[in-house]
Amino acid sequence: MRWVRWLVLGVISAAAFTTVPVGPASADPVEDIPSGLASFYHQQLHWKSCNDTTLDRAGAQCAGVVVPLDYNRPDARTLTVAISRIPATDPARRRGIMLSNPGGPGGPGLGMMADLRDRFTPDVRARYDLIGMDPRGIGRSDRMNCVLPLPTMLFSAGFDAFGYARDASLAAAFAASCLAPDPEKARFITTRNTARDMDVIRGALGEPKINYFGDSYGTYLGAVYTQMFPRHSDRIVLDSALDPDRYWLGAYQDMGPINEAALDDWAIWAAKRDADYHFGRTAPQVRAFVEDMIRRAAAHPVVGSGYLIDEHTVPMMLLSLLSNPRKNPDLAAVVRTISDGVSGLPIDMEQLKAKISGPVPLEAAGMAAVQCGDKAAPRDLGWYQRNIDSVRATQPVFGAFANNITACAFWPDPIEPPTVVRNSTPALILQATRDTRTAYQEGVALHHDLTASRMVTLADTRVHGVLHSDLSRCVNDIVDAYLRDGTLPGADRTCERDPQYRFDY
């Protein structure tokens, strides 16, 4: 704890000598180019190789789009946002551009469309230039850097007041370490500014409107764009949606109960394979094994390859693999590795890291800047502790994460209020009933806020990210019709997963 205390004092002292000019929030630009921004909207882009194997193989080219750091002061400091473009396969049928965001926040999206294009039909790929983007402050877009290089800003608070105090100290240190290097920049890495960047990209590409596909946090970004730029919003697909009114703090709290249910679901699967994994012959025995393993991790933490296995990190490792039942074997392997490690047996830490890393690794610095810059967090440290204590009995594994303190409790107040999303922009919302990252009711809430939207429910499926080539033909056909012809379903729909999408119970 002593090193954390000294780090907090050091980085806060460094930050104290730099002030951040903050002006009043400007009105939302809707139709015409706002005053002072014409040079940004009309800039000439210079396309070149992306120097990325996946993007280069997909035929993509990359460019940098210059945007104001602060849209209230367009003549002051700028950032460069990196974008990629995979051209429409049939110029004769091309109808525009489709921007995208993979989620997070903190997820680089430059290569998203190279992966996502295989989920689209040839008819859709023929019609759109697919645009990937690293949002401001992330990836190649003037990436945020923190003095304290944590792999994540999210931890579980552990079992007692001492564990919570550790996380509160670490959160304070992390916030200070992110603000100290460039406090002005850190304050302007926000969702509203990323939405403004998207509109500049639209202008620089010479398009009257954007089409958009967003996953997870990307649904919030997309919803914010429709609120700020409704006349420039065309066909909008929001997969695994967040409730804008519960972003971000409420969304984490919603993750507690749905991941406890997902762990029970996985425990049923693992119990049927006790001969392979030896966690228990019944689901309650498997859950008891996992909960005991976390306590053993608290007593005997393991450090290696820059990773720490303890009561603060193990729940996050489990959560990372509960988002899809096809990851059940990987989760079993991770549980076995952790259990062996905290029992004193040698383990392969690099292999563990590989299994728990997502396809789009989130940048902790970018996540902190966006979330903390979007919406203020409670400053009362006791508020978090009370919430954690109130759910320990019903959420023994994930409650201490879902209600834990983060760097946002120590971040400066946002430069402008969060966006209230209430509009009639047409959109297609995709939501699985047992999503472990964005609770089903959050998609329902966004559907209510976007009054002209249609919602497609994927029934009885524990999955985050509904659009997959082999998950539900029903879902894919609806998305295809909308992106191809602009046709939304006449009413909300419920789809089933395809028979071939199996995870044997």
Tell me what the structure shows:
The chain has about 500 residues and is of the alpha/beta class. The protein folds into 2 domains: about 1-15 and about 45-145 and about 185-245 and about 415-495, Alpha/Beta hydrolase fold, catalytic domain (Rossmann fold); about 255-360 and about 380-410, no CATH class. About 40% of the residues lie in helices and about 10% in strands. The protein has helices at about 1-15, 40, 55, 110-115, 120-125, 160-180, 185, 190-205, 215-230, 250-270, 275, 285-300, 315-320, 330-340, 350-355, 365-375, 380-390, 400, 440-450, 475-485, and strands at about 60-70, 80-85, 95-100, 130-135, 210-215, 235-240, 300-305, 305-310, 430, 455-460, 495. Strands 1-2-4-3-5-6-9-10-11 form a 9-stranded mixed sheet, sandwiched between helices. Strands 7-8 form a two-stranded antiparallel ribbon. Helix 1 packs parallel to helix 6 (about 160-180) and helix 12 packs across helix 14 (about 330-340). The longest helix has 23 residues, at about 250-270. Belongs to the peptidase S33 family. One of its GO terms (molecular function) is hydrolase activity. This is Alpha/beta fold hydrolase. Keywords: Hydrolase, Signal.
